[in-house]
Amino acid sequence: MIGEINPTLRRRKLASELRRLREEAGLNGVQVSQALRWSTSKLSRLETGQVAPAAKDVARLLKHYDALGEEGDLLLELAGNHVSKGWWESYSDVLHEIALEYVGLEDGASVISAWHNNVLPGLLQTRAYATELARLYRAVEVATPSQIERRIRVRMRRQQLLTNGRVTYTAVVEEAALRRRFGEADEAMMREQLRHLLRLSLLPNITIHVMLLEQPHPIDLSSFVHLRFPSMPLLGPISSDVVYTEDYPGLELIESEERVYRYSLLFDVLRQAALGEEASRDCIASLAGL
C-alpha cells in the first residue's frame, strides 16, 4: 500500500515515472502517441504533470512499456488512489498558479527548511500578523476585503501541517524580522506573535534559529523555502526536492537539481551561523518581554 498522497504530488510523481518508463523503453513521444492513437499533446501533458492521468491511461502505458510487475501495480494504485482536487484548489481565484502549486507541494512535504530575512515565515504567523501583511498589498494591487480574507484563510489552513506529525520544520529567521512591524501592527500584536513563535518552538518537530543583527552575516540572500518529500516503496521519493522563492511580484519554483543543492548548502551555512535552539528561544522571549 502506498498510503494517501495529495493530488499535486500524485500528478507530479506519475508524470516523472511515466516519462522515465518511456525513456527506459527507448521510445520517443511521437512513437508512443502513434502506437496508442493519442495526440502527442496528450502524452506531453501527462509526462509534464499538467494533468493527472486516468488509471486506464496509466494501464495502457504500462502495458506498452511492458512494466506490469510490482512497480506497475504501485503506479496503478497511485493513479487510482486520489481525490480530484486538493483543498488549496478552491482558492485559485486569489492565489497565483505558482503559489497554488507550492501549497500542494508544501502540504505533502516531509522536511521543510526556511530562511526568512524580512518577514516571519507564513507557517509561523498569527492571524493578526498575517492580516496586516495581506492588507499591505492593497497599495500595489486591487484586492477586495473578501479576497484579503480568503488569502488569510489559506495561510491559516496551511499551518495545520505543522501539527499533523508528518513534517519536520526548521526555520532560520533574521532578528530584523522579529522586530519589524507591518501595517498597523502595534506592540501588543507583536508580543503575541513572538509568544506564538515560542509556543511553536517547543513542539518536537519545529526548530527556530535566530540570526542576530549584531553578528557577522554569512551571506546576502533573500528568503527561500526548501522542501523534501517522503519515499514510496520501489519508486523512491514522491518528488525531487524543490525550492520556492517569493520576491513580489515574482514567484519561482526551482527544481533544477544543481540549484536546489546549492540552496541546501546555503541553508546549512545560515543555520550554523545562527543561534542554537535555546539561545534563539531566549532571544525571542526577551523581545516578547518575557
UniProtKB/TrEMBL annotation:
CDD domains: HTH_XRE. Pfam families: DUF5753, HTH_31. InterPro entries: Cro/C1-type_HTH, DUF5753, Lambda_DNA-bd_dom_sf. One of its GO terms (molecular function) is DNA binding. This is HTH cro/C1-type domain-containing protein. Residues 18-74 form the HTH cro/C1-type domain. Gene3D superfamilies: lambda repressor-like DNA-binding domains. SMART domains: HTH_XRE. PROSITE patterns: HTH_CROC1.
